[in-house]
User: Which sequence fits this backbone?
């Protein structure tokens, strides 16, 4: 399974970023290889609008099956949902590695919709 976790930094020891579209990095975790790879999101961070949609497209291109983040808005959620990418919310201040383990261990549930309004 390929999981993307929003991150404040480029390593699995970085803290999870609570924002989806404007997260600084996505850490792509391959559960079969037990390997994390950073995906820079500087372009998404600096977009005037549409950051969630463009980040959702990045997830699709990266082959992501699940996104773990703190929050996701309606446009980003629609983009992810259309690509059959699940969204799981992690509201705790944990490392990327801890958030990935929480999802794998079944401690995070898959969302059925966005949890914030546009331009959060």
Assistant:
């Amino acid at each position: 399974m390929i999981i993307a976790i929003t991150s404040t930094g480029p390593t699995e020891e970085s803290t999870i970023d609570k924002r989806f579209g404007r997260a600084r990095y996505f850490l792509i975790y391959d559960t079969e290889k037990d390997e994390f790879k950073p995906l820079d999101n500087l372009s998404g961070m600096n977009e005037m609008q549409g950051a969630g949609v463009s980040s959702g497209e990045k997830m699709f291109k990266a082959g992501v099956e699940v996104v773990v983040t703190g929050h996701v808005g309606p446009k980003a959620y629609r983009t992810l949902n259309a690509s059959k990418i699940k969204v799981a919310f992690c509201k705790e201040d944990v490392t990327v590695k801890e958030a990935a383990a929480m999802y794998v261990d079944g401690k995070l549930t898959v969302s059925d919709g966005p949890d914030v309004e546009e331009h959060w």
Summary: The chain has one domain: 2-104. The chain is about 30% helix and 20% strand.
